[in-house]
TrEMBL record, chain A:
<feature type="transmembrane region" description="Helical">
    <location>
        <begin position="173"/>
        <end position="197"/>
    </location>
</feature>
<feature type="transmembrane region" description="Helical">
    <location>
        <begin position="143"/>
        <end position="161"/>
    </location>
</feature>
<feature type="transmembrane region" description="Helical">
    <location>
        <begin position="80"/>
        <end position="101"/>
    </location>
</feature>
<keyword id="KW-0812">Transmembrane</keyword>
<keyword id="KW-1133">Transmembrane helix</keyword>
<dbReference type="InterPro" id="IPR032809">
    <property type="entry name" value="Put_HupE_UreJ"/>
</dbReference>
<dbReference type="Pfam" id="PF13795">
    <property type="entry name" value="HupE_UreJ_2"/>
</dbReference>
<protein>
    <recommendedName>
        <fullName>HupE/UreJ protein</fullName>
    </recommendedName>
</protein>
<feature type="transmembrane region" description="Helical">
    <location>
        <begin position="107"/>
        <end position="123"/>
    </location>
</feature>
Automatic annotation (TrEMBL), chain B:
<protein>
    <recommendedName>
        <fullName>Transmembrane anchor protein</fullName>
    </recommendedName>
</protein>
<feature type="transmembrane region" description="Helical">
    <location>
        <begin position="9"/>
        <end position="30"/>
    </location>
</feature>
<keyword id="KW-1133">Transmembrane helix</keyword>
<keyword id="KW-0472">Membrane</keyword>
<keyword id="KW-0812">Transmembrane</keyword>
Amino acid sequence: MLGKLKLTYLLYPLLILCAMASVEVFAHGVDDSTRNFLQNNTGVQILPFMYIGAKHMLTGYDHLLFLVGVLFFLHRGKDVLLYVSMFTIGHSLTLMTGVLANIQVNAYLIDAVIGLSVIYKGFDNLGGFKHFFGTQPNPKKAVLIFGLFHGFGLATKIQEFQLPTEGLATNLLAFNIGVELGQLLALMFILLAINYWRQFSSFNKFATTTNTALMSAGFMLVGMQLTGYFLQ
Amino acid sequence: METNQKSRSLLKATVISLVIAIVVLVLFILPAEYNIDPTGVGEKLGLTVFNNEAKPVDTAVSKQGQQDSVILIVPAGKGIEYKLAMKQYSKATYEWTTESGELYVDLHGEPKGDTTGYFESYTIATANEMKGSFTAPFEGSHGWYWKNKSNKDIQVQLIFNGEYAIEGLK
C-alpha cells in the first residue's frame, strides 16, 4: 500500500519536509527559540506544541536512524504500517505516562538505549541474531519495546522544561500528535528513498554496508550519551 | 563452512562498525560535545570551539566604536523622545540632522528609578543639525526630546555611539 504509492504523492510532503527541516539539527537538545517558548508558555497551545513535536521528530537523527533500520527490509505496505504502529504505540505510551506521571529517567541513559536500538536493528538486519542465537528476537515486540524507550527519550526532552500543569495534558497530546506527523513525513522520505533504491541491484550489494554503517552510528550514539552520563 | 563464513562476516561488520564509531567519537564527537580531545585533532580542526566559555555579550550594549543610527519622524506640532540607558560616567557621542527644517531639541537625562519627573538638560536649542558628546552624570535614561513646531512632519537622522543600551522611542 504505502510501498505502491506513486512518487508524485510523496513529493508534496517532501517539499514540506524540506521547508520544515531547519539547518540546526538537534537530536538531544532543543534550540533556543523553542526553549524560550517552552519556558514562557502558559495554558493550552495546540499548534506550537504540535510543531515542536514534529520538528523534534524530523530533526532527531536517533529516531530517524532507528526507523531506517526498521524499514530497511520491509517492502510490503502492510508490514510498514504494522511496524510503524508498534513503534507509535510504544513511544506514545511512555511519552504520555512519563510526563504525566512525572517519571524521571536520566536523559543520557535513555538516549544511550535509543542508540542501542539502532545497533540492535542494524545487527538484526545483517541476520546476526538468527545466525548466532538460532532465533531472531520477535521483531514486532522489539520495535514495541524500543518504541517505549524512544517515548521516554521524548518525555525527558519535555520534562526538562517543567511545564506548567495548566493545560499540560492537552499540550502533551498536541506534542505527541506533532511527533506522529513528523514521523509520517520522515517515513515518506525514508520509504521513498529506500523503495527507489530497492529497484537497483546496488541495494542488495550495499545492504551489508548500510546496516554496518547503521550499527556504527548506533555505537557513536551510545558512546556519546554514555560519556555525557559519566561527565554530568 | 558456510556458517563459519557468515560468522566471520558478521563479526567483521560488528568490529568495523565499532572501530569506525570509536574513531569518529574520539576524533570528532567527544572533542566537539564534551571538550574531551585525547588526540588533539579536535582542537586542530577547531571542533572544541563549541566548548569555549561563551563570553557574556550584552547585545543591547554597543561596543565602543560601533555606530548606531536611526531615522525618526517628528510629526508636525508634536514632540518625540529617543532615549539610551546609560550607567554613570559612561559616554556617548552623537550627530543628528533633519532632512529639512528646524527642531527644538532638549538633550537631557532622567535618573534611574526616579518618579518625581526630575530631569537634567545638557543642551537646549533650536537647530537643523547638531553634533556633540556627553557623559552621563548619573545612571538612568538619557537622550533627546525633539519638538516640531512647524506644520510639516520633519525627518531626523540620528547617528550615535558609546556605552549604552538603546531604549528607543518613548
